[in-house]
Amino acid sequence: MPREEKRQVELRPVDEEVRKEPEVIRLQKPGEIAEALPEQPVRLGRPVSNEEAPRRLSVPERREIDVRTHEPGIEALIDESAPAEATEQSWGAEASYRHPIPWGWFVLIALAIVAAGVWSLVRLSESEEVAETIREETESALVAEEREEAEARALVGRIEEMLNAFFAARQPGGWKGMIRHPDRVMPLVHDYYAGHPQMPGAMRSLRALEPITLERRGNFWMASVMLASGELRNLLIEIDQSGRPLVDWETLVCHQPMPWDEFARKRPEERPMDFRVYVEADNFYSHEFADANKWMSFRLTALDAEETLFGYLPRDHEDLPAIFRYLQINDGRKTSLILRLNVPRGLQSRRGVVIDKLMSPRWLYMDSPPKES
What global pTM score does this model have? Predict the structure, then answer.
């Protein structure tokens, strides 16, 4: 029997739904003729009956089918309810879902732009209002300044006119309406010029005129006048509530109730008088005023006078702190004060007088003092 040519054995995978058994490879013996059909695959494993023979699935070759760009895993094939996000068609939706359009930022930017515009308009309106207010205030200030300048020029004119009339007077009666505190001062004026018949004389020129403030009152002026005789006189002028300038005659002549040197020699007893004196702290104690624990000593002098007196004030007197304060303000130098002085009856001290009261911290009375204090 001629030897048949050996046929090539081809193994092809077959899916079986039977329980897997240990695989057995069956080989044909040489010289045997395979009974299987040429196209029939050789079964591997335990032979089964015709009823249990599996049906072969017809699987097309790979080149005959469309291959997807994305092959899902076995889990996706088993789970038919896989979400749409896992499929190829939903990739664009997934990208849109993961990166949404930030509409909130656009709204916020729009609101910021609108707010900036509104703020700019408000600021512009406020700036215009402020500019208008400044303009009105500036105009008001300029108008007020012009009015004040006009009033000041008019006041200076009234002062010059009053000074010319004042120094042109030949009798004290001609000063009526030109002197401060006329009810109290005019009798002093008549008494003074009864002993000093010569009046000051005419004014040649006004050398200086400037406003000053005394005790927070800004209605005083200091004038410096050159007289026809060549004498330079300084005087204080007060502007009353009606705008009328008035001369302080008492400071013009440095009025005293009696000459200072005469008072020092005669020492009239129990006759209190108000003197314009220079005051300095001193340590001279004698006779009735020898007790320095009871008395405070002050050195007293006067303008254009030679005599020196010592005024004593009890240390518990209410005016002592004020006198010390005015001395301190003047750096301890002699200070101009108006003091009420008294010589007690039977006083043994030849240079000593008693200070009854501080009448004024300067040689000017701001308000007219009462006759009895």
Answer: 0.62
